Amino acid sequence: MKAAVITKFGAPSVLKIQDWPEPTPQKGEVKIRVKAIGLNFADVMARVGLYPGIPKPPFVPGIEVSGIVTKVGENVRKWRHGDRVIAFTQLGGYAEYAVVKQELLFPLPKRMSFEEGATFSVAYLTAYHGLVTLGHVHRGDKLLIHAAAGGVGIAATQMAKHLGAEVFATASSSEKLEIARSHGATHLINYQTEDFEEVILKKTNGYGIDVVLDSVGGRVFKKGWRILAPMGRYVLYGFAAVSGKSTYSKLKALREVLSTPILFPHSLLSRNVSLSCFNIYFLTNKTEYFRNTLRLILDWQANGIVKPVLGARYPLSKIAEAQAFMQSRMSIGKIVITLD
Ligand SMILES: NC(=O)c1ccc[n+]([C@@H]2O[C@H](COP(=O)([O-])OP(=O)(O)OC[C@H]3O[C@@H](n4cnc5c(N)ncnc54)[C@H](OP(=O)(O)O)[C@@H]3O)[C@@H](O)[C@H]2O)c1
User: Fold this and answer.
1) pTM of this prediction?
2) Is 218 in the pocket of ligand 1 (CB under 6 A)?
3) Per CATH, which fold does 2-120+308-338 belong to?
């Protein structure tokens, strides 16, 4: 089968389309013919060698896809040949066929396209886990969302609107901020031209922010942490700051890591603030939580509360371009890779 392989860590050009052995489903696994792949920033981090737990190249990345079941392994009762599914592949999704643990498969809702299905689970599960499970967002909370026009950013903004939070959105262009506004953000901050810390303190008369959703880290973390109000919840779920716009610079990454403040538990105590960090990738063994949460969010999707936003589309043969586009910070919504 054809697959997009990370041949070594580096620039987008290290991604090559190659012939790769077709996987065979083992006990409890399901094989699917991949129809669409959801691109995630995690894939970029895997390509530059910064994602925790990834194998040494060559390997096939890709954590979420949609497709059609072609074969089931031993002990698989629920899934049959021909089922249309959403799959959390963990790795191996950038290929014509993928093998998935049966508990990480979900039926593709009838009204969802393969493209929507492939780009849904990671963004919405991440947004829900950050906002609801860890951030405890309540009606009226002041919520700061960074990268608000990206895949997770739009998902979080839609959910925050439903939950009644007042959203302060940051992004790198006015076009992106308009998108954030259209999904429910009230305060729009272009961090290329404004300092979000100053703007928020001014707009809130010095109060600050109740919940921060931060996927950037580094200096962004430093500023956001400073403006966390009493009882504030800071949720850190990414470190895009280390990645660079096109290539990865060790020096820039080190600068960002070093600009992260060192925190002592007693200082959190006296400020009455909390810090939560998570990676959804390592939560898939919490099967019940994972499945119940995705079921709830799919219900929200069916009722129009959240709606996936598809951005650029690329065929698998142009995967390197697609990743370069995501890393360039130009992308809006979810980038989808189509097969056929
Ligand atoms: N922990 C988890 O379980 C989990 C799960 C999913 C995603 N994430 C993280 O959430 C973030 C968003 O993921 P996504 O897949 O939805 O991607 P995305 O938001 O569609 O794209 C990344 C966006 O991050 C912003 N950004 C800020 N600094 C950047 C930098 N140095 N290099 C590149 N982009 C930068 C850019 O938006 P602006 O130009 O508007 O700033 C860019 O468009 C990523 O950091 C990802 O690692 C974490």
Assistant:
1) 0.96
2) no
3) Quinone Oxidoreductase; Chain A, domain 1 (3.90.180)
